[in-house]
Amino acid sequence: MMRAGLPPKGEAMGHGWLLSLLMAMAAAGMCEASTPHEGKAVPRVVVNILIDQLRSDYLNAFMPLYGDEGFKRMLSEGFVYAQAEYPLANPDRAIAAATIAAGTTPANHGIVGTKWPDRETLRPTFCVTDRTQQGLGGTTEGLSPQYLATSTLGDELKVATEGKALVYSIAPFSEAAILSAGHAADGVVWIDDRTGRWSSSTYYGGLPSWANVRNQYHDLGSTLENTVWQPYSELVGNFSYFLSGGMKKPFAHKFKGDSRFADFKTSGLVNEEVADVVSACVTSSAVGQDAITDYITVTFYAGSYRHQPASDAPMEIQDTYVRLDHALARLMRTVEEKVGHGKALFVVTSTGCVDEESADLAKYRIPTGTFDVKRAAALLNMYLVAVYGQGNYVETTFGTQLYLDHKLIESRQINMVEMLERSQELLIQLSGVKDVYTSQRLLQGAWTPGISRIRAGYHPKYSGDILIEVSPGWHYYNEDTGQRQLVRESYVPFPVIFWGQDINGGTSTEPVTVDYIAPTLAKAMRIRAPNACSLPPLF
User: Fold this and answer.
1) pTM of the model
2) In degrees to the nearest 10, what's the CA dihedral of 190, 250, 237, 329?
3) Most Cβ neighbours (<10 Å): which of 119, 188, 235, 471?
4) pLDDT band at 23 (very low <50, low <70, confident <90, very high)
5) In terms of C-beta density within 10 A (0-12 exposed, 13-18 middle, 19 or more buried), how is residue 421 classed?
């Protein structure tokens, strides 16, 4: 295959005049750049920003409330891929962080969700739990990226620089901080839900000094005692984008009780706290002080307060975006002050998921219902007992996934392929079921565009043997986990924005998946892409 823009070998001499003409035009400025990045030098610092639940419609709607140095600057000066998406179905925050960091899907990196059942204990396992480690700072939880099966961009930077590059990760949420960083980071910190203190794990060594100073002199627990979250300004309190009932009374939230830190992490104020800690990291460390590129991952929050539907807390979402804009502006300014203008490269994108609305669709005669996962599992087990004899064939359920008892099936010498086919035939007939995917179908079945997104999010070590796809508009309910969720397949619009060193402003409306971020940044840093990333850079 011939690379675009290069002549075939046999014609190179014959068309020397054409190459000379193109070179002359480029020198005279007559050829417009075809890519957003000119590739002149490696950046001193690369900042990879993940914004949980960022949406393009909200981002644009609240533009009149922003300052000039945050989103407005990034969107006007940066290169924007306006139609970004995830290469898999149903991403969550953990999946998003791992997919962006590793440049591949859960089928390779292994993070299939924030939690999944342990096959031995049948209890939910948190995606970054590690009982061999101990918590640092303000947490007692031992955490690490032990379930992350591939390298990340930060890991590859460490390898390429023989450990000399600095890699830091800062997030309100432990899973986002750890999975964005990877295995070899110098410092990874998050806010503990129980104590409100910036925390880490012995896996990464000690708690960074700048995080320790933050805990000592800006204790979040003491701060929240006198904190009331109110609109950032009068303008914010008197602007309404949402259709639900026009103006709302300005909110005023206090953070009390055992859930106060978890609630704080879903408020607009958390973005200011994160920006403060990023600023402390940049100014107090050796980031950007030599010719070796350093790497920082940052997670902000753009979701709803306490995960309420947007219709129940519209003013809070508005204010969250405004404070996010200010936090982003501060981060950009802090980094540029440290390394110099135009010597840092930033990328911003979203987790691609949102807190769903809980409207009563039946009220408007929209087809809906409730699919009871536990009841479906019980029905399937009764059917399998009738076919194969007495036994508890369905060990557990999680979300809409069913986990079968492999040891029982093997001891009975039951053909697993046959059992899965029978199970699929039964479950597909239940009300509210759109489709049923078995492990056999996902791993060895024929490829189709529809199945590829399901397959990309499946890993046989952690995923269920049977995945039930519930129809849009239906709720699925799992009594064992208490989970109830309205199913939607609507596209959540969000961008991928590159801004900073050698980036030419522009916009692309071509769809692009977020797993292209890692190879693109790797090229800018002149290192290898993560080891399971097979995609080319965007530019």
Assistant:
1) 0.91
2) -10
3) 188
4) very low
5) middle
